[in-house]
Amino acid sequence: MSRRVVVVGAGFHGCSAALRLSNQGYEVTVIDKAYAGRHASGVNAGGVRRLGRHPAEIPLAIAAWERWQNMTSIVGDDCGFRPVGQIKVAENNNDMAILNERERQVQNLGYHHEKLINRDELRKRLPALAGHCPGGLACDGDGFANPYRTVTAWRREAERQGACFREGIEITDIEPKGNGWRLSGGEEHFDADLLVNCAGAWAGELCKWLGEPVPLTAEAPMLMITERLSPFLGTVVGATSRPLSFKQFENGTVLIGGGVRGVVDIVRHVAETRLDGLAENADTVVSLFPFMKEARIMRTWAGVEAVMRDHIPVIGLSSQHDNVIHAFGFSAHGYQLGPITGEIVADLAMEREPKLPITPFSIQRFQTPCPE
């Protein structure tokens, strides 16, 4: 069995891989050009959801959700997980038709976690919601957690299991060495029998060096947080036809996000907000919760996310090298899947068939020529 592993990227998925590989006795080094959770993993909206998943992701999301129920036993911290439920709100009859079809699709796949609710039930669950909304799609048990707290807990547990984290080192070269790899960053070199690519928005560069380029785009989902308000919202709210993730924390502040994009400077490794995009998100909120017009925004920010062309991640073995595993490109909805990613990576490293279906996430899907 290969013993030395280098994981590139110390986000949630990299920390998850490090923990599970360390559990299996591997000597794990995690390298990050900044620090753990600097980009997507530590600054996202913290959604823990099965609701609205791509069909291929549903088995992974359900398995990950089960891990979220037992987070304290895994890493010694509940990571701020609150299973308050999530509701995707319909703003009109066309939205209701979309949600009805979604419920039917999920049930035909054999799942029953998403339930259509009517106007009365919606009003009962969301009494502050505008009256024009005819219903929604609910997923009880979904919720939210604290992103940076989560990454920190998984990193610390990985370190307790023996993983070594090296931060502030940007990998600039990868070359074969014997039966493994030599990674270089600055004046430092790292030798590995197995390479795990969890580099997020920068994973595409590693793929190019490895001879298997992918259609990855770096994007910048934006978020806002308000002043403290009196409690009015107990669940996480999304919209059907507009980007929105809307939740109130225990301290009264309200987080507004959902995917409206800012601007990425991939060279400088930063993301910047756009006022017009923030205004678009705010307009969505006010149309659903009119009283929010008076709420003051206290802070805005954006993270850097890796978005794939088909909006589902790459998880699996390299198509070119039998000692490379990929786990990246979660396309702005990978946070909830973090607990299960490491288990899949560990199975692949040990040459075991993963317990969950990962064929749809193979990097080989991008290597089949599209028909004319």
From TrEMBL:
Entry's Gene Ontology molecular function annotations: oxidoreductase activity
Residues of the FAD dependent oxidoreductase domain: 4-348
Any single GO CC term annotated in Swiss-Prot or TrEMBL for this entry: cytoplasm
Matches recorded under SUPFAM superfamilies: FAD/NAD(P)-binding domain
Gene3D superfamilies named in the record: D-Amino Acid Oxidase, subunit A, domain 2, FAD/NAD(P)-binding domain
Residue stretches spanning the membrane: none
Keywords assigned: Oxidoreductase
Name of the molecule in the record: FAD-binding oxidoreductase
